[in-house]
Design a protein that fits this description.
7 strands; three-stranded antiparallel beta sheet; mainly beta; about 0% helix
Length: about 100
Amino acid sequence: YFSLFVCICRANPDFVPSFSESQVNISLMAMESDFLTKEWEWVYDPTSPSNSSVVAAYDAATTTTDVRDFFVLSPNLESVSVKCHHLGFANSDHNPVIMQIKLR
């Protein structure tokens, strides 16, 4: 297994996370739907927000958050797990997202 500690991909426009539209910034999804073939896999953690607004200091009750950090796996890789660790945006406007993968 490999552990990855960086995620910099934005999802394609056809990708629909399970968060409501108000929590997912659709306007930032900048890839064309045919950017990758179907063998490639988009992976993310839908259970926790990975990004927060930077307009003001983070406040759990009022700050807008969304799922913005995704992984793209090539066909020779398989996702074992992916987890966004909600640390309250203490050190960044992103929470860490950790993923384990294995070779197929």
